[in-house]
What does this fold into?
Amino acid sequence: MQAVLLYVAQTLALIRKELLALLKDPSSRTLLFAPALLQALLFGYGATYDLTHAPFAVLDHSRGAASTEITARIEGTGVFRRAATLESSAQIAGQIDSGKALLVVIFPADFERRLSAGAEAPMQVILDGRNSATSGTAAAQVAAIVAAYNQSLGATSPVTITRRAWFNPNFESRWNLMPAMIASLSMLQTLMIAALSVAREREQGTFDQLLVTPLTPSQILIGKALPAILVGIMQSTIIFLIILFWFRIPMAGSVWLLYFGLLTFTTAAVGIGLSISAVSLTMQQAMLYTFMLIMPLMLLSGLLTPVRNMPQILQLATYVNPMRFGIDIVRRVYLEGATLADIAPSFLPLIGVAAATLPLAAWLFRNRLS
Amino acid sequence: MTPIVEAAGLRKTFHDRDIGDVTAIDGLSLCVGQGELTALVGPDGAGKTTLMRMFAGLLKPDQGSLTVLGIDVARRPQAVQDRISYMPQRFGLYEDLSVQENLDLYADLHGVPADQRRDRFGRMLEMTDMARFTERPAGKLSGGMKQKLGLACTLVRSPDLLLLDEPSVGVDPLSRRDLWKIVHQLVEDEGLSVIVSTSYMDEAERCAQVHVMHEGRMLAEGTPATLRARAHGLTLVATPPAGTPARDLQARLIDAPDAIIDAVPRGGNVRFIRRPDADPARLADLLEGASSQTRCEELEDSFMILLREQDRAAEPLVAQAEPDRPPGDGKPVIVVRDLVRKFGDFTAVASTSFEVARGEIFGLLGPNGAGKTTTFRMLCGLLPATSGQLEVAGRNLRVARAQARARIGYVSQKFALYGNLSVRQNLEFFGGAYGLGGKMLRDRIRDAVEQFDLDPAAQSGLLPAGYKQRLAMATGLLHRPEILFLDEPTSGIDPLARRAFWRRITALAKGGVTVIITTHFMEEAEYCDRIAIQDAGEMLAIGTPQQVRDMAGHAGARDMNSAFIAIVEAGRKRRDAQAAA
Amino acid sequence: MNGAFLRLRALIRKEARQMLRDRSNLFVGLALPVVLILLFGYSLSFDVTDARVAVVMEDNSAATMNAVAGLAGSDYLSPIWTYSMVEAEALIRAGQADAILRVPAEFTRNLLHGQGNLQLILNGVDSNTAQAIEGYATGAISTALQHIADRQGSPAAASASVTVLQRTWFNEASNSTWFLVPGLVVLVMTLIGAFLTSLLIAREWERGTLESLFVTPARPIEMVMAKLAPYLVIGVIDLAMCLIAARYVFDVPMRGSLWIIILSSLLYLLVSLALGLVISGVTKNQFAASQMALLASFMPAMMLSGFVFDLRNVPVVIQVVSNVLPATHFMGLIKTLFMAGDYWPQILRANLTLAAYAAVLILMATRTLTKKLD
It folds into this structure.
């Protein structure tokens, strides 16, 4: 009992020291928490695949009722904004090249005539393909508007397809991206803090002083890991609150499960960070290794593009990427209201990574080849 | 003589969020002549480094005027920087560059022409005895060699003024001798003007002018002779009766500030300074029959007198309660047998054996790079031994359970505490790591802060070098360890603080604490029960200070410094001869 | 003047040596781009393939089979046949299906009356994929129905309708690699700056090397220039790797002039390296510098520069923030240069902006090396 109390007291002393070192001066406090806030807001608005007020230009050679109506419908959706009305096809290139218009809608001179003759009337849409995601979405939107217009002309199809979207009824890409930020944004800094923690002590010579105290490797591990985990969870909380109350994305699942997932995820991330730290001799090395790792972790996480679109071999590689499963857990708990039973498989890789990296780091504290 | 530095009414205040404003330089005036060697001395935190940095144009004075080489430094710092050379306390060598590359860099920056450069480099490398190591990365050099390389980099050309900030901190006596030889030669040959700050009084003694600083003000100035005169007639040397260690007598004397200003063991005797008003009867009482006679006064004596006259004179030297442990019983606590440590081809420690008994003070002496720190790191379990046996309190700390480490204290050579935490936070953390808590921890911290004269709110990393060292000591002693490993604990701290430190160590040893210590102040070896001299990883001599002095023969008769130099040089000669054979 | 040149040469030599000595530095500087190139090229894709659609057949007639047969024929969809909504829902919840196509029991009967109704339920979490699946599923089913209609010999009466002729300029096939790879150049250049230079000055402060360097004739601007030079070389090597990979591995067109691409990239590289130095000089502390570098360069360049997220979709405030980032200007320029060609107004505007950034940042970095210790 005495031994347990001593163990806890010693570990608490270390945790307190680590927290002090992290949070002591206002500038480092700002550096830990302001970015989460700022990034959540900036990326919340900035990171979207949804078109809003996308600029388009119209070149209407036919100047008839139909072309006017279609143009009006395109403008009326709120998705597009008319940026220019062109006079000649020579102007098209300028509009697209400069990025002033994402698309140009062209009605040929015989457009009105063909329609009234009951024939098919082609209209042309020229899209700026430099961002294929945006151009694809815009094309689909225009197609949908035109289809609706055709329906109003009386065209019928024997089959109708009614669409329902679960979990994200309006297909807002923010709903998809923001919950992923809860995991991914906080991971970046958490990983960096963990990676620098031991490297900094080694570079500044304080690690030896730490090693001659009676602290055991497991105590040092806990003392180094907990503050980093705490910072990670705090950052996640900031982002979580912004998403919930500022962006008002409804939370479908259990907050407890969400935090359990975040805790597991952050622990795995910190395990990786501490392992990097334990092998690095200088902060420069720790930082470089971390950066080197962050990129693949981000790209192979499904944050920006779905994991399922990747080649098979890279998909396999994602199984050791905590960020993939962290994002998976958060998205599914937040949006789908997944239960522990639903997402249990996503916990396994996280636990695996933590179980491998944390003991490795603890072992490396003392046994790094010098 | 035209003054090369002229300062009037200088004032510099630093603003600190935690401890408020600190006035480092407080209305200081001084005048330094050309072509002279000038020393700045003073206790820790006197403002020596701040003043040096102002000379170098790195800090702007808040008040007062300062001209260097006739230039207003505050207004045109670059003009001064183009003409002077400056060696900061911690010379910023590029550790990943080789010796030659570091030299080249500074020669290029100072625009030394190629033809002059060849001569100069040759001379510098010869004087620093580094010609063999030109290809070695600076980071792989020992502490003393780094200092010498720093000096060489500073001296790639003849500057109009050379500023040296504590150039010999942590440098062994041989390197220190070399370093000063270089400086003296340049002053003689090239008429170099040099300002050097130092805490070694024997170094100040060699300068033409000495300025004694205290709390940002000038306390006294003059030639060493005029300053020495203050101590005239007060300096004595006492020989303890046979069988009594000098340090016991020294302890008794230094604990009597009413009659004694200062006392240090030296060469088996005790040198002391009596108060001018000391009662002869009281003196006789303290000496307890030890014979005493007058001796020549030294600059250090005057320095001690000057400082004791200041406010710190009232400070009691010893306050630490003796730990409640059985006194020394002569049983070995540290056993080292055939210890070897190799780094690749390089043998850092070669088959070393020694034992240290409980309650003993064991001094490990040796030039920089002799393997002392490596030995320490192995004993503390920080580094595995290549071969051999080592036990600390019956265990090998590398494999022992963690709690075994609670019995040792370790003060490393480099400041190894958390620079961005306050003094109190550092003490609290290390206390906690050793399992101290609650009232006991608070009491110990209060004691430590008092004894080491620390400001608990100050940020550790910004303390003056001497105070950093004190904090490291305070931290290492907080948990009252049974065995203390002290790696150059007194480097860079002033003589006053060194006295207090040794008084504490001898008290601890009396209480049964085993102390194993390295130092470059050879006179401090006199406090030890036994000492060992190590060089190039080999043990050259081991025994009581008296035995070691005897071993050095004629040279050792004078003092430990000369004994040390003689033994190390003899060892090197022998090794060279073996290598040649 | 000669002295300045000699000093600069000495300082550059010093920085280059330090860079070459630290293997981890060099390794990351040269290996990172390769890793990024491969990852970007192969891992990032918006092009949905084999989306899993759970088909709930509550009506098993031949007509139904024909109607949904189109799904199996699509490259983009892979149907999973199930018999109850409960089963399908479980698949969605377990993440094993992305959508459900429900064929109601009365489908065949209603189809005869021309009122067939299918239900498509999508997991909207990944809205992009969901919308793509919707498009593919609808397309596949209508093609199948058209086919049936054709075989039954009852061509749909030609009626008045509008058809859309779609032309996507610059990227006919809407290949997402084409738009992601030019962004890769931007990210690599950004990262090189963030990684390699952001610790340089901070490290010298922490190790105390600056104090010695300050009291020499070396001028702050010379120190800054010397710190930029060796990393510029690394950056050029990286740039070459990126351009070669873009052209020959990923077959991205390079419609603009090669020399404009190179010159603009070099200018941006300079901006990025200088930004790293400024971070380093302002923080004077490696711990803070590395956090800042991560936050100030990499994340914004990825999220706010128009790399994947089109800036035309974001609120004005965010557009303003984006335009403060040098990466945004370079991102727009490089995408145009790769896919559209030399569009001079943009080339001039972006390069002038970048040049201004470079000048300001270098000046700021110089200011952080002002020879003062307080």
Observations:
- The domain at 233-296 of chain B is CATH 3.30.70.100 (Alpha-Beta Plaits).
- Chain B touches chain A through 32 residues (CB under 8 Å).
- Chain B has 18 helices and 23 strands.
